[in-house]
Amino acid sequence: MDTASPYLLTPGPLTTSDTVKQAMLRDWGSRDATFIAMNHEMRERLTDLVGASATHVCVPLQGSGTFAIEATISTLLPPSGHLLVLVNGAYGTRMVKIARVMGRKVSSLEWREDEQVDPASLDQRLSDDASITHVAVVHCETTSGILNPIDDVARVTTSHGRALIIDAMSTFGALALDARRIDFTAVVASSNKCLEGVPGVGFAILHRDTLETCTGNAHSLSLDLFDQWRGFETNGQWRFTPPTHVVAAFCQALDEHAKEGGVAARGARYATNHQILVDGMEELGFRCLLPREVQAPIIVTFLEPADAHYKFEEFYERLRDHGFLIYPGKLTVADSFRIGCIGHLGEEQMRDAVEAVRAVVQEMGVANCGPSRIGR
Ligand SMILES: *Cc1c(COP(=O)(O)O)cnc(C)c1O
């Protein structure tokens, strides 16, 4: 089966194991006791992965990660609230847009896409503006692959008594995040990134005492996580048709995550993938956008070669013919493309990916893989 699917070296959806795909080969009734037990276990396990079972609850939601982000903002922010978003890429920008569309008061602090968000500026802003009730930040900005200093952002936010919403979509299950060390009101992620499930479920890990005060905040019925939570607490069921097969695959993916050795082992595999990728690409002459100290082992942005023979579309299609899907850049600061290190892949696939790049640049007649400038 794997030989028919290309490897997805993208920010998601990602390559999944055969066993995860096979977990979808039966039907479940939504009110069935087995399915209800699966949901319960899924919610418990996800809460445990961030050390939050004593303080938080997991509320899953049908849809992609963005649905869960939108639902979290809508549910946590009262209509009188004011959200401050720390923006250094497209996913931060998206949270600003989400809040604006639902008519909530929103401000942003912005940095370049190749710069981490700065906790000192956050500290200043929160001192200056007492109307800000919530802060939102992206753990790894998948736009560039940059890691944000989440511990310091949480410390500053807590010291000002504001609530923190973390978009941990591209790190959950691979990079440590622990509610016993980091004070957050919500962490949001999805089934199909580092947890290696199939796409279709987003979820938020929400501070229970806070969630209890959130009745009536949401601007939308289907995105109301308070109501969704009450549903799970009342009868263990989803309010509306559940993505049954996605849940089954997700439970299998969580089993495989635990068997691999949990967050530490998953993170270590991705770190090795990342190392092989960057070493191999640099040897070919490619240059990374980010300095190593701020690069997360999730997805890497490479600067496009200046060589006139290089065209992204052709590079993409030829790599696809070698069995690897990559992703265009999403940057405003430089022409780039991205290669992911996450999903059900390891050292062998990363070495093969680098070899495929080597073959493709040769086929295209690209003699020099370096960019026209070093991008920082
Ligand atoms: C993937 C991702 C999302 C959600 O994207 P969807 O396409 O809605 O699943 C949000 N934030 C970050 C940082 C992501 O990487």
Protein structure class: alpha/beta
Strand content: 15-25%
User: Number of folding domains?
Assistant: 2
Q: Biggest sheet, strands in spatial order?
A: 2-10-9-8-5-3-4
CATH class of the largest domain: Alpha Beta
Residue share in helices?
Answer: 25-40%
Largest sheet: 7 strands, mixed
Rg, nearest Å: 21 Å
Contiguous uncertain segments of 5+ residues: none
Describe this structure in words.
It is a single chain. The protein is of the alpha/beta class. It has 2 domains: 109 residues, Alpha-Beta Complex (Aspartate Aminotransferase, domain 1); 216 residues, Type I PLP-dependent aspartate aminotransferase-like (Major domain) (Aspartate Aminotransferase, domain 2). The protein is 40% helix and 16% strand. The protein contains 12 helices and 14 strands. The strands form 4 sheets. Strands 2-10-9-8-5-3-4 form a 7-stranded mixed sheet, sandwiched between helices. It has a 3-stranded antiparallel sheet with strand order 11-14-13, covered by helices on one side. Strands 1-12 form a two-stranded parallel sheet. Strand 13 and strand 14 form a beta hairpin. Helix 5 packs parallel to helix 6, helix 9 packs across helix 10 and helix 11 packs across helix 12. The longest helix is centred in the last third of the chain and has 23 residues. It is globular, with a radius of gyration of 21 Å. The model has no long low-confidence stretch (mean pLDDT 96).
